[in-house]
Design brief:
InterPro entries: Metallo-B-lactamas, RibonucZ/Hydroxyglut_hydro. This is MBL fold metallo-hydrolase. The protein has a single domain, classed as Ribonuclease Z/Hydroxyacylglutathione hydrolase-like (Metallo-beta-lactamase, Chain A). The protein is of the alpha/beta class. The N and C termini lie close together (about 5 Å). The protein contains 8 helices and 14 strands. The chain is globular and about 55 Å long. The chain has a 7-stranded mixed β-sheet. Strands 7-8-9-10-11-12-13 form a 7-stranded mixed β-sheet. Helix content is about 25%, strand content about 30%. One zinc ion binds next to α2.
Length: about 250
């Protein structure tokens, strides 16, 4: 499978990157993980507006889902051929209400469901197109999920937003590519059950036995090189910083 970083800025967009959004492709199927601020524009560098097959929202903080409001416009008011058929959207309890409220002025209370087929995520294992996905609750102030995507004997694990949690260690067990958030700086920010720092991301990767670590969700006010060095100090495998428009073959 192929992973492309659409956006990787943490909490708010940077001049260089949209917020969280990652495109996962295999067998011609396109699964988007998160659609944060600015992601819909960036996405169009990688595929057509209507080429997505499914969307997974890790949680309902704006930096992971708010461009779904813009995507609603593109699908509901489509100019070349009428309204789009509903695309599967996997998200936490209340996703439809959250997006409808954020949009503020949908034609009816159920308009979102005319173009999005909402599925409520719980910790579970299920198929999405050619992928087998595993979801686990992670440690964040709102209901939030990490996701493991498997295809052809390979796996990608995305932490979503989380503090330290055994659930993430298990989800990322022996994973081929671990896309892990590192929003905080070791020694500077220390708030439990919110975000990981670079060191904690590296320690999680070590505990999990991940083969490769890609740090993401680093906010513009944080020095990414510090987080990168902190992760490398505690994880023996390859570590790099996520960057927009970079792809990985897994
Ligand atoms: Zn976030
Ligand atoms: Zn969050």
């Amino acid at each position: 499978m192929k992973l492309t970083v659409v956006g990787c800025s943490g909490s708010f967009p940077s001049a260089e990157s949209a917020c969280s959004s990652y495109l996962v492709e295999a067998d011609g199927f396109r699964l988007l993980l998160d659609m944060g601020n600015g992601a819909l524009g960036e996405l169009q560098r990688h595929c057509g507006l209507y080429d997505l097959d499914a969307i997974f929202l890790s949680h309902l903080h704006a930096d992971h889902c708010i461009d779904m409001c813009a995507y609603f416009v593109a699908r509901y008011y489509r100019h070349d051929g009428g309204r789009c058929a509903p695309i599967p959207v996997y998200g936490p309890e209340g996703t439809e209400h959250r997006l409808t409220t954020a949009y503020a002025d949908t034609p009816t209370a159920s308009s979102m469901s005319e173009v999005f087929d909402f599925h409520t995520v719980k910790p579970s294992t299920f198929d999405v197109g050619p992928f087998t996905v595993h979801t686990e609750r992670v440690a964040h102030p709102v209901e939030a999920y990490g996701i493991r995507v498997e295809h052809g004997g390979k796996s990608l694990t995305y932490s979503g937003d989380t503090g330290i949690t055994p659930a993430l260690d298990e989800l990322a067990r022996d994973t081929d590519l671990f896309l892990c958030e590192a929003a905080f700086t070791h020694g500077k920010e220390d708030i439990p059950d919110l975000h990981l720092n670079g060191r904690e991301a590296g320690e999680t990767a070590t505990r999990a036995g991940a083969r490769r670590l890609v740090l993401t969700h680093i906010p513009p006010w944080t020095d990414p090189q510090v987080n990168l060095a902190d992760a490398r100090a505690v994880f023996d495998g390859p570590v790099e910083l996520a960057a927009p428009r970079v792809s990985y073959e897994i």
